[in-house]
Amino acid sequence: MRACLAPVEQDGALADPAHADALEGLTEEQGNRAREAVRRQLQSFARELVSSLQFYQSQPDSLGIAEIVLTGGSVHLRGLAEELQALVGVSVRPGDPLTRVKVGKKVRDAEQIGSLAIAIGLGIED
Q1: Distance CA 72, CA 95 (A)
Q2: What is the largest CA-CA distance in the chain?
Q3: 8 A C-beta contact, residue 50 and residue 116
Q4: Given 3-state DSSP classes, what are the helix, strand and coil percentages for the chain, each rounded to the nearest 5?
Q5: For residue range 14-71, what is the model confidence (pLDDT) as tens digits?
Q6: CB 70 within 8 A of CB 84
Q7: Contact at 8 Å (CB) between 65 and 53?
Q8: Tens of pLDDT along 67-118?
Q9: Three-state DSSP class for 79?
Q10: Are residues 42 and 15 in contact, defined by beta-carbon separation less than 8 angstroms?
């Protein structure tokens, strides 16, 4: 079953100051401008993503797209997965690069683990 892939232009959690914490070290106006800049870039990214996914799905024998998995440092932006999901109409979730990895005792900062996804992925042998 194929997902409906159509970008939706809307304001969401990233742009709504009522749903966002104050950004440390910025005035309210600066924080609002920063959120707006992120929102615009995310909308542009979502349009490009939808275009790529539509191209993929137009190919013979393409598979349906059930979800998008986010990795990398940007996955730590609060509201990113939800906003992207609203824009592309496909389930979006942060990836967990430690799913198949035994974590050493020295790895303590679980919040930043998403930034290690590429390094961990390169080290996995199937």
Answers
A1: 9
A2: 52
A3: no
A4: 50, 5, 45
A5: 544 444 456 678 898 998 998 899 899 999 999 999 999 999 999 999 999 999 998 8
A6: yes
A7: yes
A8: 999 887 788 788 899 999 999 999 999 887 777 777 777 766 666 666 677 7
A9: coil
A10: no
